[in-house]
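Cross-posting from the modeling subforum.

Setting up a comparison between two proteins and wanted a second pair of eyes on the formatting. Protein 1 (sequence, then structure tokens):
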Amino acid sequence: MIGRRACEKERRPSFCGGCAVELPSVTCCFTGHRELPAPRLPRLRALLDAAVEAAAQAGYTAFISGAARGFDLLAAEAVLSAKARRPELRLILALPCPDQTRGWPEADLRRWRAIVDACDESLCLSPFYTPQCMLFRDRWMVDHSARCICYMTRFQGGTGFTMRCALERELEMVNLALRMDA
């Protein structure tokens, strides 16, 4: 059984190799860069809120975030905000390994902990860090989704990898970077 929240002592989910997503057809995942343009964050937040609402109106009820710094945390917060209006929505955190947050700044750790405490489900896909655990998490999110909402300005790193996986699986793609100047 997948733990709903992180354990109280360490605020981390227990390892689970299982699947939290029953119906990928109603599931949306997120991917995006860790570094976001600070002056444009209000616009990005508004676009993200609108994309989550549009997905909910289209019948998506489960949203998977990898809970990484930057766009992933912003996306998780958008889902939690939407849940206030749409309690049927679920936020699932797909964490790559138990020590994902090692070395993070305290402000990001506080945000991460608040999101873990508020999410509907959290699962850790690897019991320990490996050089490939982040990419495994990214592929897992794509494999369990039908739509991907992203913020991608360059096709590299984990975001580029996730986008390539999503394109291979023919997910619906919503790239908010293309709407920033609209």
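Protein 2 (same layout):
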Amino acid sequence: MGFAQKKYIQLLVPLALSAAQGCAEWPRHQHKPSINADALSPDQPPQDGLKFDWSEHESIEGDNDQPSDPLPIQVGEGIFASGSLSGMGWSPDETPDRISSCGETRAFPPAAPGDYTGDVDWITISPSENGTLCMKMGTDIETARIDAPLYVLDDCNEPTSVFVHPDSETPIGLNVASAEAQWAIPVSSGPVLAIGIAGFFPDDVSLDAEWWINLSLAPSVDGAGASLCPEEYR
């Protein structure tokens, strides 16, 4: 009985030492070199493994109160655009037309009652595949507050529905409390989409605000959210 117990203890010690040495090198991918020169290190964010091809959209000048022809975009592509808003503000006394030329209910403007009193610029896109649409925009006026919701257009090229936050009924890009806005949301191929850019503050119809916007289409992965959107925009 004494011999058997002694033998068990002697065997247990080397096994414990071996397990400790193995744990010291866990997880294995942090210590085993990759054969892929482009592989990410464990501490890199996932978007570092994606490359986006950026194109510059011709700057929008003057009045562009209606969505224009869509720009095609696919996963791995980004669009940079800029323009200028002539006038800003919101009036609750305005009564906008809520019926599109196709007879559908318009989702623009995105709040009620009222309407924008200044310029509205549009960026229209047509995703060629499913993905996560990433948007970041800003203006040169720090006190300006600009809406940048995402709409679906009908056959008459008018906005008839608006994307909302998954956990609320608030349209994305609406009532942002800073001069910059950013969001990411899954989209599907097929529908033509448009971002309506308009300033709701300050109330100044004589104010001109230069703006810029980055749009990119990242892969759509369950649970990834905005983690695959590019950190460094063009």
